[in-house]
Automatic annotation (TrEMBL):
Gene3D superfamilies: Nucleic acid-binding proteins
InterPro entries per UniProt: NA-bd_OB-fold, Rep_factor-A_C
Biased composition (Basic and acidic residues): 616-632
Protein name as it appears in the record: Replication factor A C-terminal domain-containing protein
Protein's organism: Brassica campestris
Signal peptide: none
Domain Replication factor A C-terminal span(s) in chain numbering: 435-522
Length: 632
C-alpha cells in the first residue's frame, strides 16, 4: 500500500510540471479561438452589403444605369411583400445612397418581385452597375447576382436562353389579347438597339405587373438574361425571326446618361403597290404615310367637324388618304388608333393634312384595297415626327400634285356602264388609278392563249424560270413552289357596248367556283402522258360561265389611262343578288360596317399567339406560256 501513497509535495510537483501546464493552457486558448471565430461569423452576417471587401474589386459597366432592384438583397420596401420583415441573418439595404470609395458595388432602391432573397453562401453581394440609382426589376431570379454581362446586339439574338445583356429603347408596347375570348395573353413591345435593328419583345401575362409600372415608351433600358423565341408568322411588326421574351430570371433596369445613341423610332413604309401585293396575306404589318383627302366623308376645311358621338359608337374613323399623286385609298382607324387620331386632329385645330399610321393590315373590301389599323398601330400628324415633317415640306412645295385629285370625285358612288368606263379612260384629267362596278354579261372566254400563270406560292408574283427551279424576284428566293393563278381573258357586253375583261386571281375563282390550281392539277392527273410544258386548254367550268350576268369590280390601271391596253382587270366578281355596296373612282368601297368582318377574319388567326408587289400581269395578257406548277 505504501507504494501507492504520495505526499502533498509530490502532488504539487506533478500538477505544476511543465507538460501538464501546457496542456491546460492549450485547451484554454483553443476554447477562446473557437468562441471568437463563432462570434466573428455571426457579426459578418449582419453587416451591410454596401461595404466592399478589402482588396476585392467589382465589375463596372460604362454609362450611367438606374437600377430598379437587385436580387439577393432585401430592400426596406417591396411591392410583392410590402409588410415583410427582415429575417435573421439577412442583409438589408437602406433607401439612401451609400458613398463608396473606388468602384461602385450595390445600388439601392426598390426590389420588385423578388421574395426574401438570401445569399446562400453568406458572402457579400458586391454587384457592380457603374452607377447609383433605383433597384433592378426582376421576376424572381435566385442564386445569382446581377453583374455586367456581355452586351448582345439584336441581330445576334437566336432561339433559346441567353445570359447576355440587351440595351435598347422601348419604342412602343401594347396588350396582346385573344381576339375571341379577349383574355390577356401578354404585353408585346417594339424595341430598337443602337444599330437601328428593331425586334419584337414579349412579357407573359403573369409577369406584366412586375415590369409594366417601371416602363415607359421612349425609355432606354438594359435587360439581363432573356429567352429568344420564334417570331410569329402572322401580323409581324418586325423583320427579325426571333422575339425577346422576358423569362423568370430576366432583370430589367434603366439605362440613363448612356454615351450610346439609340434611335427614337424606325418606320417600314409601304406604298400602294406593296400593300396591294400583300393584301389579305396576313403577313408583316407595314407603315403608311400620305396626306388626308377626307375624314368620314368630309373634305378638309374650316367647316369640318368630327362627330364624337358617332365615333364613340362605331369606334371607327374612316379616312381617304393619298401618297404623293398615287391612288387614293381608304384607311380605317379602329379603337385606340381612332381616339388617338381624334385627339391629335383636334389639337391641330382641324388643319392637319399629313398622316402616318404604323402597322396596317391591307385588306380587299368590296374588291378594293383598304388599310386597317391593328392593336399596335400608332398615329402621327404633320409635325409629330421627322417623317411627317419631311412629307409636309414636300406637300407645301407640291400643292398642285397633292390636290390633283378632287375629293368630291373620290366619294362619287355609282355603278357605271361599259361605255362610261371607256369615257373615263379617255378623259384628259383621268390620271388616277380607279375602280368601278360594272354589270355585264359574259359573252365568251378567249381561247388560243393561256388562261392562267404560275405564281409564287407565297406572294403570287409571277414566277421566273431559273436554271433548275422556279424563282421569285419579290421574295428573293431561288427555289419556290409554283401555284397556278387565274389570268383569264373574257369578252363581256351590256346593252350598248362590249369590252375585254381579265379575270385575276380570286376573281376567276369567284366566277367559276374553282381554283386555277385545282383545274390545272386535275388536267395533268387525267392526262399523265403530256409534258409539263403542255398548254392546258380552257376548262369547262369557265366555258359554262358564258351567258351569266354578274357585277364586276374592275380596275382602270395606268396602262389603260396611257392607252397601252383596253383590257380591264377584274378584281372581284359578285352575283346580282348581293346587296350593292358603295363604290367610287379610287377603289375605296365602303362596307356599311367592316369592323365585324375584320374581327371575324382576324379571329381565325390570333395575332397574339402566333407570336414588289404581286405582279398581277393582267395589264399584259401576253404572258409567257405557263408550265405545270411544280416545286423547285
Amino acid at each position: 500500500m505504501d507504494s501507492f501513497c504520495f505526499s502533498p509535495s509530490d502532488f504539487v510537483y506533478k500538477a505544476l510540471s511543465p507538460p501538464f501546464l501546457l496542456r491546460i493552457l492549450f485547451i484554454q486558448l483553443l476554447i477562446r479561438v473557437l468562441f471568437r471565430l463563432r462570434f466573428s461569423a455571426m457579426s459578418s452576417n449582419g453587416k451591410s452589403t454596401s461595404e466592399k471587401p478589402k482588396g476585392v474589386e467589382t465589375d463596372s459597366s460604362t454609362g450611367s444605369i438606374n437600377l430598379i432592384g437587385t436580387p439577393y438583397v432585401s430592400s426596406s420596401h417591396t411591392i410583392s411583400e410590402p409588410h415583410s420583415k427582415q429575417g435573421k441573418g439577412e442583409a438589408s439595404v437602406t433607401s439612401g445612397l451609400t458613398k463608396l470609395s473606388g468602384k461602385t458595388s450595390v445600388s439601392s432602391g426598390v426590389l420588385i418581385g423578388v421574395p426574401k432573397s438570401r445569399n446562400p453562401y453568406g458572402m457579400k453581394n458586391g454587384v457592380s452597375s457603374g452607377v447609383r440609382g433605383k433597384a433592378v426589376v426582376s421576376s424572381g431570379g435566385k442564386g445569382k447576382a446581377i453583374v455586367s454581362a456581355e452586351v448582345v446586339a439584336f441581330r445576334s439574338v437566336k432561339y433559346g436562353s441567353h445570359d447576355g445583356e440587351l440595351r435598347f429603347r422601348l419604342i412602343h408596347y401594347w396588350e396582346a389579347r385573344n381576339v375571341v375570348t379577349k383574355v390577356l395573353i401578354g404585353l408585346e413591345m417594339l424595341l430598337i438597339d443602337e444599330e437601328e435593328t428593331v425586334i419584337q419583345g414579349f412579357i407573359p401575362a403573369g409577369r406584366i405587373d412586375t415590369y409594366l409600372p417601371h416602363m415607359r415608351a421612349g425609355g432606354i433600358y438594359r435587360l439581363n438574361t432573356f429567352y429568344g423565341s420564334n417570331n410569329k408568322t402572322l401580323y409581324r411588326v418586325a423583320e427579325s425571326s426571333f422575339t425577346v421574351t422576358f423569362s423568370t430570371t430576366s432583370v430589367l433596369s434603366d439605362l440613363d446618361d448612356s454615351s450610346v445613341c439609340f434611335p427614337e423610332d424606325r418606320f417600314r413604309f409601304h406604298g400602294y403597290e406593296e400593300f396591294d401585293a400583300a393584301c389579305d396575306l396576313k403577313g408583316d404589318l407595314y407603315d403608311y404615310i400620305g396626306h388626308i383627302k377626307l375624314v368620314n366623308g368630309q373634305v378638309l376645311g374650316e367647316n369640318l367637324v368630327l362627330d364624337d358621338a358617332d365615333i364613340a359608337s362605331s369606334r371607327r374613323v374612316m379616312l381617304h388618304v393619298q401618297t404623293h399623286d398615287g391612288p387614293v385609298m381608304k384607311l380605317y382607324l379602329w379603337d385606340k388608333a381612332a381616339s388617338e387620331f381624334c385627339e391629335r386632329f383636334k389639337a391641330s385645330g382641324g388643319t392637319a393634312h399629313v398622316i402616318l399610321v404604323t402597322t396596317l393590315n391591307p385588306k380587299r373590301l368590296g374588291g378594293a384595297l383598304a388599310l386597317s389599323s391593328m392593336a399596335p398601330s400608332r398615329v402621327f400628324l404633320d409635325t409629330d415626327v421627322q417623317a411627317t415633317r419631311d412629307y409636309l415640306n414636300w406637300m407645301n412645295m407640291n400643292l398642285d400634285v397633292a390636290n390633283r385629285v378632287n375629293a368630291d370625285i373620290v366619294t362619287k358612288s355609282e355603278t357605271v356602264t361599259i361605255g362610261e368606263l371607256f369615257s373615263y379612260m379617255k378623259q384628259e384629267d383621268a390620271k388616277v388609278v380607279a375602280w368601278f362596278e360594272c354589270i355585264a354579261t359574259v359573252g365568251d372566254v378567249v381561247h388560243g392563249s393561256s388562261w392562267y400563270y404560275i405564281g409564287c406560292g407565297v406572294c403570287h408574283t409571277k414566277a421566273t424560270k431559273g436554271p433548275t427551279s422556279l424563282m421569285c424576284k419579290k421574295c428573293g428566293k431561288t427555289s419556290i413552289v409554283g401555284v397556278a393563278q387565274y389570268l383569264t381573258k373574257i369578252s363581256v357586253y351590256d346593252n350598248d357596248d362590249q369590252a375585254s375583261f381579265v379575270l385575276l386571281g380570286d376573281a376567276g375563282h369567284e366566277l367559276s367556283g374553282k381554283k386555277a390550281s385545282e383545274l390545272v392539277e386535275d388536267y395533268f392527273e387525267a392526262n399523265e402522258d403530256v409534258g409539263g410544258d403542255h398548254l392546258v386548254p380552257v376548262p369547262q367550268v369557265l366555258i359554262d360561265t358564258i351567258g351569266q350576268t354578274r357585277k364586276f369590280v374592275v380596275k382602270v390601271s395606268k396602262h389603260n389611262l396611257t392607252g397601252q391596253t383596253q383590257s380591264l382587270t377584274v378584281t372581284k366578281v359578285m352575283t346580282l343578288e348581293v346587296p350593292e355596296v358603295e363604290a367610287n373612282l379610287e377603289g375605296n368601297v365602303a362596307v356599311p360596317d367592316t369592323r365585324e368582318t375584320l374581327d371575324k377574319e382576324d379571329a381565325d388567326d390570333d395575332p397574339s399567339t402566333c407570336f414588289g408587289s404581286v405582279k398581277r400581269a393582267a395589264d399584259k395578257v401576253e404572258a409567257e406560256d405557263p408550265k405545270r406548277a411544280r416545286s423547285g
